[in-house]
Amino acid sequence: MKETRFIAQNKEKWRESETLLESEVKDPEKLSTLFTQVIDDLSYSRTYYPNRSVRVYLNKIARQYFSIIYSHRSDRKRGFSHFWLEELPQIVIHCKKELLISLIVFLASMAIGVFSSVNDPDFASTILGKSYITMTNENIAKGDPMAVYKKTHEVEMFLGITINNLMVAFRTYVLGVFLAVGTLASLLFNGIMVGSFQYFFVQRDLFVESALTIWLHGTLEISSIILAGGAGLTLGKGLIFPGTYSRIQSFQVSAIRSLKLMLGIAPIFVAAAIIESFLTRYTDVPDPLKLLIILLSAAFIVGYFVIYPWMKIRKGFSAPLKDVRLAPNPTEPVSFTKLKNNAEILKDTFHFYTRKANEFLPWVLLVSSVQAGCFQFMATEQSGLAYLLGDWTDELIANMFFAVKTEAPMFIGINAFCSAIILYRAMALLDSEFKATQFKFNIRALLQIFFLMILCYSLIYLGPWGIVGLLAVIGVFLIIAFTQLTENSNLGAGTSDGWILAMTSTRQLLEFQAMIFILCFSFLMVLSAPLVMTYTTVMKWNFALTDTWGQSALRYIETFIKVCSFNLIIPVLAAGTGYLYFTLQEINTAANLKEAIARVGTRTNRGQKR
Q1: Residue 153 sits in which domain range?
Q2: Beta-carbon contacts of residue 414 (< 8 Å; ≥ 6 apart)
Q3: Does some domain include residue 334?
Q4: Domain annotation covers residue 183
Q5: pTM of the entire structure?
Q6: Cα–Cα distance list, 5 to 15, 18, 606 (Å)
Q7: Which of 285, 319, 271 is nearest to 95 (CA)?
Q8: Per-residue model confidence as pLDDT tens digits over 355-364
Q9: Beta strands in 24-181 (DSSP E)
Q10: Do residue 70 and residue 205 come from a single domain?
């Protein structure tokens, strides 16, 4: 082929490549397609026009493509530092108004707490509880006002405080889904409580001692609650002020931004729990050292969340948040071959939930009804399941799957089998979509998932450290479950292959696992909101205490709602794990990349024949 004809045939494609390379936003699919075509043309020009300018021109475009590819690879390697040094400050800049409102509401609530305590001596007991007030007065009489921080072992206290603080923060955050009103109410309550709590010690001339002890950990803890309030307001803002987006699109964008902010706050709660568990209990520590820790904590919060983002703005740092893209139409086909970051996997997960809901929700409802029936049949005063019908937020996770030791194996088996059925159904649907085949029941895969679920629930039964262990390995367990199902292998081979995949990108696995758990935890917080509790309370008003059948029906309905709420989360775990599997598989084997290279070689050979 003559050079002029070669140029005439391909010049539009090359111009499109130049335009795409110069644009700020690059379509990954188009970038991949044009890259392959340009490399094909470059190979042809090297063969037939080695000393012509067209080869130099194509070589220049190819270098630009390689520059983008390797810079992207570098970005993936420094993803952890990029999140903390660039992305999170960028989100803080974008959410500065919501964070400021959260701070103002909290400080105003503290003032209300102090003012109310000044005018009503019994106000503190109303907010803090009479038992706590009585205990603290007894400690003051004994000469140790802060003795409450010394009663529990350090490690147990650390785990309990961390879970409690995270629940408070995520409740404040997720209540933003109620048009931000829930978040404002949570900030109001917590602010009033802190104000009345601090003034309680002021009334007893213990301001300095109490402040140096309480704010030792409270500086980080209270700051995190305020930041969580800002995240909740950001979440609600997407629903209230959609702008040029549809309301659901605006909510998607605000949910991703606020969720990343919550991810950035979580380590601060852990740090606050460490200080409260291991340092606050030592009340005889010199006051200057306490003050130093408080000032360092305050300096970190102000420095990282206020000064650092402000300095970024001064240096020309903008906050367009280009990484937050609207998800594609749920009806569009999902790519199982391209490498995806966790945000893309999360979007695909929600689209799967939307597309396949009618296929797995009947399974969830059926399994939940049977599971609730088993609990109802076995729930006696001695079984320990009476707690299941107690307070939503405090007992839902801790006691839903527990019983006394003599009954634990049966409850582990029931819950493991029910979870395995839902997990298998969701994973099998995703596998069928990937293979473009009809769903076929695979009893071996189900039993193998059941065995893995038994291991998971057994870890829960071991207590706090078992739960910590489960959180560390659950991602690997789920990868193994999907691996053995999609590869139709036995449990041994699935475990080996799943472990290799999990170790391929441990960071991405852990980060995705953390995002999924935060979403699931937030979902449970929504279900534990006052609206749901009000609904069940209204139901109780319609049954007399002496109506045995009515009370039994009510307990069954409550149990079903709680069990079904938990089971609705399982398809999210299943789908997310499946999409993560395909990304890890591509990272590990590069099968799609090798296929693309082979296609380039084929096209090059065809070009040479011309």
Answers
A1: 85-314
A2: 371, 374
A3: no
A4: yes
A5: 0.61
A6: 16, 20, 16
A7: 319
A8: 888 899 999 9
A9: none
A10: no
